[in-house]
Amino acid sequence: MRTVYILLGLLLISCAQKETPLVRDQNPAAAGFDALGSDPAAIELADSIMHAMGGRKAWDKVRYISWNAVGRDIIYDKEADRVRIVHGDTICLLTSAGTGRIQIKGVEMVESEALSSLLESFHTAWRIDFYDLLLPFALKSSGVTIRYMGEDSLSGQRFNSLILTFQKQPDQYKLYVDKQTKLVRFGAYYQNAGTEQATRIHPWDNYQNVNEIQLSANRSDGHGPMKVKVDKDLPEKLFNEF
Question: Is 84 part of a structural domain of the chain?
Answer without folding.
Answer: yes
